[in-house]
């Protein structure tokens, strides 16, 4: 399944390495929070709704950051803006380790979100434009598997930190460790070029008397694509965040698993996620963008229902965790290439940044809503309600979007 990687050119390979590493470290910084929710609740004496707000504010600001970064990337270049976003979210995550109040964590999580959202928006466009159409889906989708790698690293660090350190210090060390992604900027500066299609489009725009505005994505010619893409991304991300933000807390508080036990269960889900990302990347090139999304939306809905609504033993939950991770993560693999192909080069980063991050912004409400509903319905039921509705939205929007498999990108 990875034979295609050997056939990439050196610039394609170097860009792949940079994007994969960036997304891995992005995931590490973000997923650390999901593991320390219980510790933050106890340390700052907050409730589940407030804890959910810490997840929501990052996603809301990441939506804004992704859109802004997309517009800046169309104007100033993909590579330059990618470096800035990586530095931004690394430093903000590091500073959370010094927080002394809920309000300080809230502000820093908001600032972290600006860089977090921008990194995916710019990195995905960069990959989509540099890699040839033949392998675009596999390359961009495989980059998404870096999220599972970063998630796995976060799970390992969580298990070690909370086994060796007191809870009051363990969560701080996890955030301090997350400054490491900033080192990736050195590699990007030396090895990653701007895509040729972007340079041609930028030159053409500079030569025109009438400049192309980033608001062109809302023009009559692109409005339908923009809105449907945004709704598609809302379903994909709303479902994911409803499940994964609260999953460690669900296992610990309602299934009563120990720290090591929770890590073992999550390792199965993370393994499923990694295989799901790789499989989705292959499927999107093999079968097409729309069939891939439809398949994974159905699998995600079934898996979430089974995991949260059916009474299972601990052993049964261990096995069910694999398809949950496989489906909920694999659905992302086709998104990046699909959005790249839906928008023209002159506003590609703006369109992709808006659509993906609009979905992230609306999906950002799900952790808070899950926390609120869990007070009366239980955490498992709350997760199931919001995740199920999100994947139904994916099925609906896919019906109205075009198939773009194999579409060539031109300036």
Number of domains: 1
| CATH fold title | Growth Hormone, Chain: A
Annotated CATH homologous superfamily: MFS general substrate transporter like domains
CATH class: Mainly Alpha
The number of strands is 0
Gross CATH architecture: Up-down Bundle
Work out the helicity level.
Answer: over 70%
Cα Rg: 20 Å
Our estimate of the beta-strand percent is under 5%
Largest sheet: none
Intertermini distance: 31 Å
- Regions with pLDDT < 50 over 5+ consecutive residues? none
Instruction: Please state the overall shape, judged from the principal axes of the Cα atoms.
Output: globular
Mean pLDDT: 84
Please provide the ordered H/E string of secondary-structure elements: HHHHHHHHHHHHHHHHHHHH
Tell me the structural class: mainly alpha
Work out the helix count: 20
């Amino acid at each position: 399944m990875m034979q295609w990687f050997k056939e990439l050119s050196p610039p394609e390979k170097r860009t792949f390495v940079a994007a994969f590493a960036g997304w891995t470290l992005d995931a590490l910084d973000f997923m650390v929070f999901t593991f320390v929710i219980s510790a933050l609740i106890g340390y700052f004496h907050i409730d589940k709704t407030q804890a959910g707000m810490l997840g929501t504010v990052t996603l809301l600001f990441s939506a804004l950051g992704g859109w802004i970064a997309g517009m800046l990337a169309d104007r100033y270049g993909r590579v330059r803006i990618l470096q800035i976003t990586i530095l931004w979210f690394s430093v903000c995550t590091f500073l959370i380790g010094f927080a002394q109040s809920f309000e300080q964590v809230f502000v820093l999580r908001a600032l972290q979100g600006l860089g977090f959202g921008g990194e995916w928006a710019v990195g995905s466009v960069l990959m989509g434009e540099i890699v040839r159409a033949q392998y675009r889906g596999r390359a961009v989708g495989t980059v998404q598997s870096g999220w599972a790698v970063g998630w796995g690293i976060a799970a390992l660090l969580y298990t070690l930190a909370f086994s060796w350190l007191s809870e009051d210090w363990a969560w701080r060390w996890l955030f301090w460790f997350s400054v490491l992604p900033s080192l990736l900027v050195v590699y990007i500066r030396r090895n990653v070029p701007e895509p040729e299609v972007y340079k041609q489009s930028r030159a053409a725009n500079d030569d025109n008397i009438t400049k192309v505005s980033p608001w062109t994505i809302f023009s009559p010619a692109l409005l339908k694509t923009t809105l449907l893409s945004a709704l598609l991304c809302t379903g994909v991300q709303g479902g994911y965040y409803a499940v994964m933000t609260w999953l460690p807390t669900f296992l610990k508080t309602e299934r009563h698993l120990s720290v090591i036990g929770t890590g073992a269960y999550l390792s199965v889900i993370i393994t499923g996620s990694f295989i799901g990302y790789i499989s989705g990347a292959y499927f999107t090139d093999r079968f097409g963008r729309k069939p891939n999304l439809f398949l994974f939306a159905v699998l995600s809905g079934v898996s979430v229902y089974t995991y949260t609504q059916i009474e299972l033993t601990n052993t049964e939950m261990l096995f069910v965790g694999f398809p949950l991770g496989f489906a909920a993560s694999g659905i992302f693999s086709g998104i990046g290439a699909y959005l790249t192909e839906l928008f023209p080069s002159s506003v590609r980063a703006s369109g992709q940044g808006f659509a993906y991050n609009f979905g992230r912004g609306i999906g950002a409400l799900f952790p808070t809503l899950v926390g609120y509903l869990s007070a009366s319905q239980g955490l498992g039921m709350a997760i199931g309600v919001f995740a199920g509705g999100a994947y139904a939205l994916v099925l609906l929007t896919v019906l109205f979007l075009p198939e773009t498999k194999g579409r060539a990108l031109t300036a």
